[in-house]
Amino acid sequence: MKTTRSVLVVLVLAALAWGIALFAPRPLSAAPGKNLKVYPAGTDTAEIKKGMKLISKALGVQCDFCHDLDDFSKDGIKQKDIARGMMKMTTSINAKLKKDGFKTEVTCITCHAGAEHPKK
Fold first, then answer.
1. Which of 11, 26, 39, 73 has the fewest Cβ atoms within 10 Å of its own Cβ atom?
2. How confident is the model at residue 33 (pLDDT cuts 50, 70, 90)?
3. Who contacts 45 (Cβ-Cβ below 8 Å, separation ≥6)?
4. pLDDT confidence of 64, banded at 50, 70, 90?
5. Are 48 and 54 in contact (CB under 8 A)?
6. Is 83 exposed, middle or buried (0-12, 13-18, 19+ CB in 10 A)?
7. 56 Cβ neighbours under 8 A, 6+ residues apart
8. Phi and psi for 116 in degrees, rounded to 5?
9. How far are the Cα atoms of 1, 23, 87, 102, 116 from residue 67, in angstroms, in the given order?
């Protein structure tokens, strides 16, 4: 009887540990991004991907609009250079807004509204 109870307890604890391991959140990636020109050096790829998804949605485009899909860190793509400039621009605008007491921030979607090019 004692042995059966011990085995049962071990099985319940093992099942519980397995369930926790199965459903525990995992980081997408802890590796730092490569060739970062706007994000701070050492920013991990999970954080970069989160930002890129927001930009992609704001412009209604996919990754290949700005990136070489074989090497995301590759430079020399016109849209990537433009995007970097726009990211710096929004950072600058938001710093000015914050300094002037505004709590609202501008993002890509503020002007692009889901389109590759903002309306004039």
1. 26
2. confident
3. 28, 29, 31, 32, 33
4. very high
5. no
6. buried
7. 62, 63, 65
8. -55, -40
9. 65, 33, 15, 34, 15
Where are the chain's structural domains? 45-112
The mean pLDDT value for 10-17 works out to 62
Q: Which residues lie closer than 8 Å to 119 by C-beta, 6 or more apart?
A: 113
Q: With cut-offs at 50, 70 and 90, classify the pLDDT of residue 27.
A: low
Bridge partners of residue 44, in order along the sequence: 32
Taking only the tens place, the pLDDT of each residue in 78-102 is: 999 999 999 999 999 999 999 999 9
Asked whether residue 30 carries a pLDDT value surpassing 90, the answer given is no
Helices and strands, number each (H, E), in the chain? 4, 0
